[in-house]
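To illustrate the input format used throughout this study, we show a single complete record. The first block contains the structure-token representation of the backbone; no residue identities are included at this stage. The design step must infer an amino acid for every position from geometry alone.
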């Protein structure tokens, strides 16, 4: 089944590849779309840019949460459950795709999607950083162009029907979630489930970063404990009983080192990075890269131009 028609939006065309079931879902703020997508260039080869199936996870969008690529909410709102549709979108709608894709790729790689961003809008970050870290996305950033999105809608859930991820929470909900995530992380450390504990701490850190980013735009005061130092406290410190359990866990130290680096704790960051290289020689290359970036950031911060001491990885 292929039916092509124009949506009531300038610069958008839709082709239904497989019909869906029932009526169009009734949406409200907080409704969640779950879907797979494929992004292609509008060229002769229809070059694939991203494919959520290859990434191994479906995409989710919360209605009313100001997703950077606003047109996606419009596209999904035109679909029925089970429908597969192809959308052609003019460049007026795709200018932010490079930043959106960068974040999604980082998540799929197990990295913090906010890493390296300043507390600014997405467009501000685009101008601050000349590279997304991905060559194909840099091209889209330099030259916005029409894109094709192929989407398959799995389900639409009301706000009360699912547990919301922290990124979809309100400021007040994030504030309440941070100590809970911290406690859950501590409990997992005591059970020696380090990877799961690190994920909980990282989620708490992301909550705090989002809260800090909203400080200048909110009328409700943010508690004093939401400070850069909180990032280290929550992502690094565990109960005394659990401290010894981290001794043989290089990944936990690596995450702690990055947290220290993020809040300018140079000495602590370098010590943890050195410990990582000692515990796990296979991570030496990653540590060397982080140390180099740390040195560059510290020089910029202090306006200095010299090679910092202890910038090399000690022999293991």
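Output of the design step:
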């Amino acid at each position: 089944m292929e039916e092509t028609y124009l949506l009531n939006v300038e610069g958008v065309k839709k082709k239904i590849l497989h019909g869906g079931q029932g009526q169009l879902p009734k949406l409200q703020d907080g409704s969640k779309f779950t879907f797979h997508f494929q992004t292609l260039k509008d060229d002769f080869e229809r070059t694939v840019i991203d494919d959520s199936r290859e990434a191994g996870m479906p995409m989710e969008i919360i209605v009313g949460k100001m997703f950077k690529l606003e047109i996606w909410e419009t596209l999904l709102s035109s679909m029925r459950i089970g429908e597969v549709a192809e959308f052609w979108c003019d460049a007026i709608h795709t200018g932010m795709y490079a930043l959106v894709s960068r974040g999604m790729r980082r998540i799929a790689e197990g990295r913090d999607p906010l890493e390296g961003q300043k507390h600014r809008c997405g467009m501000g970050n685009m101008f601050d950083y000349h590279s997304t870290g991905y060559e194909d996305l840099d091209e889209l950033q330099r030259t916005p162009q029409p894109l094709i999105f192929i989407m398959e809608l799995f389900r639409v859930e009301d706000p009360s029907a699912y547990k919301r991820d922290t990124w979809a929470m309100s400021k007040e909900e994030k504030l309440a979630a941070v100590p809970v995530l911290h406690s859950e992380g501590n409990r997992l450390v005591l059970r020696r489930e380090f990877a799961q504990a690190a994920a909980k701490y990282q989620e708490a850190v992301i909550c705090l970063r989002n809260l800090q980013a909203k400080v200048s735009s909110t009328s409700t005061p943010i508690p004093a404990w939401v400070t850069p130092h909180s990032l280290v406290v929550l992502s690094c410190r565990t109960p005394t009983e659990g401290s010894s359990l981290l001794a043989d866990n290089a990944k936990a130290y690596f995450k702690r080192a990055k947290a220290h680096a993020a809040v300018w704790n140079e000495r602590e960051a370098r010590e943890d990075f050195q410990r990582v290289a000692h515990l796990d020689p296979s991570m030496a290359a990653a540590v060397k890269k982080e140390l180099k970036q740390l040195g560059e950031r510290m020089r910029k911060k202090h306006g200095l131009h010299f090679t910092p001491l202890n910038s090399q990885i000690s022999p293991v």
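Structural context for interpreting the output: Residues 171-190 form the longest helix (20 residues). The mean pLDDT is 75.
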